[in-house]
Amino acid sequence: MTDTTVDRARAAELGALGRFLKATELDTRMLGMVGALLVIWIGIHILSGGLFLTPRNLWNLSVQTSSVAIMATGMVLVIVMRNIDLSVGSVEGVVGMIMGVAQAEFLIRVLGFQLGNPWLWIIALAAGVALGLLIGAFQGFIIAYMEVPAFIVTLGGLLVWRGMAWLITSGRTVAPLDATFQLMGGGPRGSIGATASWIIGAVACAAVAFALLNGRSQRKRFHFPLRPVWAEVFLGVVACAVILGAVWVANSYPWPVGIVRQYAEKNGITIPEGGLFIAHGIAIPVLMAVVVGIVMTFITKRTRFGRYVFAIGGNPEAASLAGINTRWVTMKVFMIMGVLAAISAAISSARLNASTNALGTLDELLVIAAAVIGGTSLAGGSGTVLGAMLGALLMQSLQSGMVLLGIDSPLQSIVVGAVLVVAVWLDTVYRKRV
């Protein structure tokens, strides 16, 4: 049998779908998750009487997903290294409380800062990020150098940091927060508007095209197999369609009538008879989540540190014998997780315009579920940042949809738990087949 005959036989076995997936190099698990997300969206939209797939709900869904998605990107690294972090929700809570106290009480009453001082939110945010980094370093040191299992350390952290958040204010809610700080929570003023959103969309599409062209040139340089040109074009068109579609949805959601009226009166604008349409555009917390996702993807795929993380998760003994400082890498992963929890705390507290003791409660379960549903294996060694962020979107879609459908909170917990178990089971089945 000639080589040509063999190739034709293999192509016939693959079928049209197999050849398409091979040419585009799309991850079948990622496609499956996207398909599940679309099924959930369409199903909830029908059951809710057309309330789910609306610009308003999708915009709010993107904002609600941001904080969990940011922490899920860090949880990927933690789980890839065969560890777990049960404390992220409590770290989010205590850091949010510190940032709230810093800007609403300490800086004003103790240091004499005036309301509206531009340094208020900057110092508060910096203090929160620094605290998150220190907490992550502390827990990472105990796990890496004192060799206490991550499950126990972070379970203790879950209790300790939640208690600390309560002790800081004796259970009080701290509000209101700095007006500039509140922009990180979204809302009409926490969005960038229609024009800036389209500009960002265009820049993102240009970045996609550059990434595809650069990737193709790198493959040629190192003599790696090239994707067909049609596959490159297809991937670029689909990516740009998704980006521009998201921008269109964000720009289709207008400001509330009352806020538009206040804005018009303040700026001397006459409201026309049909009303004044001012688009929200992309929310600032969504942009923050996207930036974090890009940075974390770069870290995992383009840096030596990222390669070390996956090497340790794949085989810790071999990584250690290869000269990788596994303890220091482990500690750095938990430091990153602490910083990401601090960023999420800023978004969540800014969105509420208050620091509360309930902030971040049970978020650790949502974050772990998002990472696992996104394809991060609990056995270690595999996972993607994009998958975790899609997993966060899927989890938040379920919760938002169940709220729209009027499903009771206990039943919501049952559904979320069942989805997590099914996701782990599917991961087990997939690993056995590979």
Q: What features would you describe in this structure?
A:
It is found in: Cell membrane. It is a multi-pass membrane protein. The protein is mainly alpha-helical. It folds into two domains: 50-191 and 284-434, ABC transporter involved in vitamin B12 uptake, BtuC (Orthogonal Bundle); 192-282, no CATH class. It has 17 helices and no strands. It has helices at 3-24, 28-47, 55-80, 88-110, 119-144, 150-169, 179-182, 193-221, 229-251, 257-267, 284-302, 304-314, 316-321, 326-352, 363-373, 385-404, 409-433. The mean pLDDT is 90.
CATH class identity of the largest domain: Mainly Alpha
The average pLDDT is: 90
Helix/strand-derived category reads: mainly alpha
Order of helices and strands: HHHHHHHHHHHHHHHHH
Q: Strand count, sense and closure of the main sheet?
A: none
Summarize the model shown.
Part of the binding-protein-dependent transport system for D-xylose. Probably responsible for the translocation of the substrate across the membrane. The protein has helices at 3-24, 28-47, 55-80, 88-110, 119-144, 150-169, 179-182, 193-221, 229-251, 257-267, 284-302, 304-314, 316-321, 326-352, 363-373, 385-404, 409-433. By secondary structure, the protein is mainly alpha-helical.
Give a quick set of tags describing it.
17 helices, 434 residues, mainly alpha, 74% helix, 2 domains, ABC transporter involved in vitamin B12 uptake, BtuC
List the helices and strands and how they pair.
Blueprint: H1 3-24, H2 28-47, H3 55-80, H4 88-110, H5 119-144, H6 150-169, H7 179-182, H8 193-221, H9 229-251, H10 257-267, H11 284-302, H12 304-314, H13 316-321, H14 326-352, H15 363-373, H16 385-404, H17 409-433
Subcellular location: Cell membrane
Function: Part of the binding-protein-dependent transport system for D-xylose. Probably responsible for the translocation of the substrate across the membrane.
GO molecular function: transmembrane transporter activity
